[in-house]
Design brief:
Blueprint lengths: L10 E4 L3 E10 L3 H11 L8 E11 L3 E5 L9 E6 L5 E4 L3 H34 L21 E7 L5 E6 L1 H8 L7 H10 L6 H12 L18 H40 L7 H12 L4 H56 L1
Antiparallel strand pairs: 1-2, 2-3, 4-5, 5-6, 7-8
Helix pairs in contact: 5-6, 5-7, 6-8
């Protein structure tokens, strides 16, 4: 509705976070285009009119208020959008049902961002009340809490917010190499390039295999929702334990296992010379063969393909070296034979 309180027909596009108000234009095709179109398609009539839209206004849904308007004798099925620091927009629907549909969609999108922020706060508070549980350090050495005795960080962080490691024990380095919270590709490349100065390939592979096999956390009585023997409390306790276990597998076990496989994939792809040791390669193959789970198996098969390709390349390279060595040996032998024959001939002439 314009300032003179007259309604104008507009086309409104409602997107996920924005509302677009457009004016529709119907352009008639030119006679030349109609003639060419008709001759091309075998028709003598004109072409179809082209519908175009010209943008008039656009508003972010989260920055407008959706207001209902009561029906009057002259106006029915109307509602308002009130943008901040701008004039209100009055919309008129064709029916009560259409008005309700528009308002429901607008209110849902308008409150979506607020509800998402509220949900984030609720989830954050829930995590503080029920923190993620880890296996005991005596059963899983990678669950040892950070301390100045096992890891030291640089004062500055990366632009991505990932802390820079200044020094750490080998176990802590492997833990950060396969950290469950975030991935650090640059640290992985640096580690696999330099680890041989403080660790052997066998030690690294053994630690990665240990890192992959994660025991489940232990739930003590204090985490069982104050169970006092009643059936309701027991049921609540079991539900809490099931939720904690599901969260542990989703937020810790799966990310760690996927990152272990990712490290192995990069290792065999970029540094396969470490696996020229047959015992090390046999340990890797045995570990990959024991991996279960559909998604995990795909990673294992991908690593196996890389290993097979590298092994074939190594065999081909050795054959090439043997062929070159044999060719060189044959060439030298032939030269010596020819030289001996020539020397014998010269001696006979003397």
């Amino acid at each position: 509705m314009d300032k003179g309180k007259k309604y104008k027909e507009q086309t409104v596009f409602l997107c996920d976070g924005m509302i677009l108000i457009c004016k529709q234009h119907t352009a008639k095709p030119s006679s030349s285009s109609s003639h060419s179109s008709g001759s091309h398609h075998g028709h003598s009539g004109g072409g179809q009119p082209q519908v175009k839209y010209r943008l008039r206004e656009r508003h972010l849904i989260r920055r407008v208020d959706v207001l209902d308007r009561e029906d009057t004798a002259t106006e029915k099925y109307t509602f308002e959008l009130a943008p901040r620091e701008k004039d209100k927009l009055v919309f008129k629907a064709e029916s009560e049902e259409e008005k309700n549909c528009w308002m429901a969609a607008l209110v849902m999108l308008n409150t979506k961002f607020m509800l998402e922020r509220l949900l984030d706060v609720v989830l954050s508070n829930e995590e503080k009340l029920h923190p993620l549980r880890f296996p005991p350090p005596d059963k899983y050495e990678f669950a040892e809490p950070d301390s100045p005795n096992n890891i030291v960080y640089e004062e500055k962080e990366k632009s991505s917010g990932v802390p820079l490691i200044k020094g750490a024990t080998l176990v802590k380095l492997v833990e950060r190499l396969t950290y469950h919270v975030y991935a650090d590709p640059m640290f992985m490349k640096t580690f696999l390039t330099t680890y041989r100065s403080f660790c052997t390939p066998k030690e690294l592979l053994d630690l990665l295999i240990k890192r992959f096999h994660i025991p489940e956390p232990e739930f003590s009585s204090d985490s069982e929702s104050d169970s006092d023997g009643h059936a309701a409390a027991d049921k609540s306790s079991k539900m809490r334990m099931a939720q904690d276990l599901k969260r542990f597998r989703k937020e810790y076990s799966q990310p760690v296992q996927f990152r272990v496989l990712n490290v192995l994939k990069h290792w065999v792809d970029q540094h396969f010379y470490d696996f020229e040791d047959d015992d090390l390669l046999a340990t890797l193959n045995e570990f990959l063969a024991g991996i279960v789970g559909k998604s995990m198996r795909k990673w294992a098969e991908c690593i196996n393909k890389i290993v097979q390709r590298r092994v074939r390349s190594k065999i081909w390279f050795r054959r090439l070296q043997l062929y070159r060595a044999f060719s060189l040996f044959s060439s030298l032998t032939t030269t010596r034979i020819r030289t001996s024959s020539l020397t014998l001939t010269v001696r006979r002439r003397r």
